[in-house]
Structures are given as C-alpha cells and as structure tokens.
Amino acid sequence: MIVLAKIITALVAFIHVYILWIEMFAWTTTGRKVFKNFPKDLFIPTKQMAANQGLYNGFLAAGLIWSLLISDGNWSCNVALFFLGCVTVAGMYGAVSVSKKIFIVQSVPALAGIILWLIVKFA
C-alpha cells in the first residue's frame, strides 16, 4: 500500500510541476490551450500574476517530492499528508472560485493520496 501511496503522491507532484511550467513559462502559449475559459485578451496582462501562482504550485510540488525523499516512514507520511492537504484545499478553493474541473484535476488525486497514506499510517 505504501508503494501506491508514493505513486499517487508523485503523480500529484508531477501535476503541480506541470502547472508550474504552464503558469511560469508557457502562460501565453500552452496556458491559452489549457485555460480555455480565461479571456484571451488577458493572458499577456496577467503573465506576471500567473508566474506568481506557478511559483506556489512549485512549492506544493517541492513539498510532495520532499515527502518522498524522507527515509523515516512516519515523518514521510506526515509531510505527504500536510502537502496533499494543502493541494486538496487549493483545489477546493479553485473549484468554488474558478472551475469545478480544478477539483477533479487537483483535489481528487490528492484526496486519494491522503486516503492511501492514512491506510498506511493506521493499518
């Protein structure tokens, strides 16, 4: 079960590295394709704001990757739970404020990771 928990955690980290890349480096190109409901005329004026958001997604990814590199199983689990919880809350806020799709893309995988880590922790 721990292997599956780590795979899901790595997947969530990868998603956030991808979001970082889009928001920091490809906002006016790939960002237009991914965020189809965002007004096309606002991509250039919001480039710096998107880069800032991308940086925060990078911090989430860094925390998740860090959790996978910690050798102490209990500490690794706690760090993963914290960052997966942060991702879940961010996805929930995004779903309420921007698009329900954000909940599916961010919160659902993070919640799956939380469930798996809790099973590992308490089984």
TrEMBL record:
<keyword id="KW-0812">Transmembrane</keyword>
<dbReference type="InterPro" id="IPR009732">
    <property type="entry name" value="DUF1304"/>
</dbReference>
<dbReference type="Pfam" id="PF06993">
    <property type="entry name" value="DUF1304"/>
</dbReference>
<feature type="transmembrane region" description="Helical">
    <location>
        <begin position="49"/>
        <end position="70"/>
    </location>
</feature>
<protein>
    <submittedName>
        <fullName>Membrane protein</fullName>
    </submittedName>
</protein>
<feature type="transmembrane region" description="Helical">
    <location>
        <begin position="77"/>
        <end position="96"/>
    </location>
</feature>
<feature type="transmembrane region" description="Helical">
    <location>
        <begin position="7"/>
        <end position="29"/>
    </location>
</feature>
<feature type="transmembrane region" description="Helical">
    <location>
        <begin position="102"/>
        <end position="120"/>
    </location>
</feature>
<keyword id="KW-1133">Transmembrane helix</keyword>
<keyword id="KW-0472">Membrane</keyword>
